[in-house]
Amino acid sequence: MSLRHALSVSALALAFAQLAYVPAHAQDVARTEQGNRVSENVPAISPELLERLNRYQNTRGAGFAGWTHDGCVLIGTRFAETTQAHRVCQPLGMREQLTFYPEPVNRLTAAPGGLNGFVFGKDVGGNEFWQLHWFDLASRQVSLLTDGKSRNDGPLFSHDGKQLAYSSTVRNGKDTDVWVMDFATRKPRAVVTEGGSWDAADFSPDGKQLLVSKFVSASETYPGLVDLQTGKLEMFPVDGGKAAISDFRFAKDGRAVYFVSDEPIDGKAQEFTSLRRHDLSNHKMQVLSADIPWDVGGVSLSQDGKHLLFVSNEDGISKLHVLSLPDHKPVKLPELPIGVIGGVDFSPDGKRIAVSINTATSPSDVYVIDLGSRQLARWTRSEVGGLDSSQFVTPTLVRYPTFDQLDGKPRTIPAFYYKPANVPAGKKLPVVIQIHGGPEGQAQPTFNATAQFLANELGVAVLVPNVRGSSGYGRTYLGLDNAEKREDSVKDIGSLLDWIAKQPELDAQRVGVHGGSYGGYMVLASLMHYSDRIRAGVDIVGISDFTTFLNNTEAYRRDLRRAEYGDERVPEMKAVFDRISPLKNAGKIRSPLFVAQGKNDPRVPYTEAEQIVKAVRGNGQPVWFLMFNDEGHGFQKKANADYFSAATMEFWRQHLIGK
């Protein structure tokens, strides 16, 4: 969870002064309810800390979401409480805000062809049951496209703008089907109802066919093609029977498809995904990124059919590649800032590329590349709270040995290390380990206001590891924590504690762990195994017991999670879950704990937080608890995110750093 934005110090001080304490059922637990915020044992945050934190919380970024028909870029950014849609029409031009909702908007999708507008998604209180809406740029009117109840995602226009495909749970609330809407009449029809989780990938140039895929897990996807006139679904063969396949795109002439896959090549298994082209007439396959030994993705083709772009993920750093068509020769690009690429796409005329780039020392901003002149122009410059960004810490990539071996040598785990500057000789720094979620996610060197504040203001070193099970390091690495191997990723944290103890500048007696979602489980599991070596932990929307989690997570995602974690209905797997459950081992957690949760979380239900708080407190351990009734899987509203960030820093000051 990154630090973002802030209320003024005076407003927060006034809010704290107005808190009314209500006795909770648990002994010696003070429950505070103010608006949508519920907290237990969270003390007042010192005004001095709030003042220092304020500017870090007022950083914000701008993410590219698409090109409008008039050559402007559509972006998502925040100027009040939540991220909203904005339009920018020239380099460093005015950001015109288009949507004004108390809830954040997302899934921004600019319409092609003669349509003048965009589709966006919006949920209620973070429940992730997104409803798709149409924003007409000419009239500035908004209309609801979906039923107002189901979960809708992945809006995708046909190339002429006459059809809109999207995925929805409207049929039975459990399966995610693919629907296609005639955009003139706004009448939708289901085109894939096979069961499971399906998405639309691309329309054929003539709009008569639709590429779709069934997602099972991060390493298992099944692609297919729907004839929109007959309704026939034809599944493509998957070499090796099982593979990670994504980014299906039709060639301009419709005679070939481009896609990303880790299927075997010439019978040889592949660790990483590569960009491929499949000729539909002769079934000839070309590998277009064979020289890149990393995962690729983010494929897009220009509407004029002259260029193709894709992005490689090289040890956490993004690199943009452009190929000319049909010869697939590399196109020289201007030098881009070193960082992580978010949204990227060609302009409607195919002559420019807009790309959002996030670096370790600056939030996301949008840049535009002119392919003819190879010139780079910056279109947005987001705020960093008035801070001097040259003083931000740039993390270094380190690799530490873990408990097992690879090719006869100790396996190493990558981690990004934020080290405070100007550390006096002989001074040992407290450490916070930030563990990403997923578990198939990947920590990358993006702008991290939390890490910057800890390093620059509190003198805390931050380590962000990519333990086994993380994406970006190959198929084998991704599967090293599956099912009964779940705790091997926890052992990687134990090995990081060993590494910390060997670093002369780090204080192995003052180490904290911090993580959200699956990273929250990792926090609890690390405290379960290493409470004697970890001073304190912050668990955000974390899993506390895999069996209760799988029983209570929303129906549409239950089987997806079973594919990763294991099936609790199988007695052998249930026994593994019981053995590794932080809830069932709460007596082993002997360090101060802070648990934060969104009441409307559809992924990790709030009951996961409540039960671990009760269990750890039952063993006499101190626990801070914070819940927002208007949030889901994380905190998207500015005031909520600010309060949580401030409370976290107060927790570290009291339980990690010392007065």
From TrEMBL:
Keywords recorded for this protein, A-Z: Hydrolase, Protease, Serine protease, Signal
Domain Peptidase S9 prolyl oligopeptidase catalytic: start-end pairs: 446-656
Entry-linked InterPro entries: 6-blade_b-propeller_TolB-like (IPR011042), AB_hydrolase_fold (IPR029058), Peptidase_S9_cat (IPR001375), Peptidase_S9A (IPR002470), WD40 (IPR011659)
Signal peptide, first to last residue: 1-26
GO biological process, one term: proteolysis
Sequence intervals crossing the membrane: none
GO molecular function: serine-type endopeptidase activity
Record-linked PANTHER family: DIPEPTIDYL PEPTIDASE FAMILY MEMBER 6 (PTHR42776:SF27), SERINE PEPTIDASE S9 FAMILY MEMBER (PTHR42776)
Protein name: Peptidase S9 prolyl oligopeptidase catalytic domain-containing protein
Organism: Lysobacter capsici AZ78
Lineage: Bacteria, Pseudomonadati, Pseudomonadota, Gammaproteobacteria, Lysobacterales
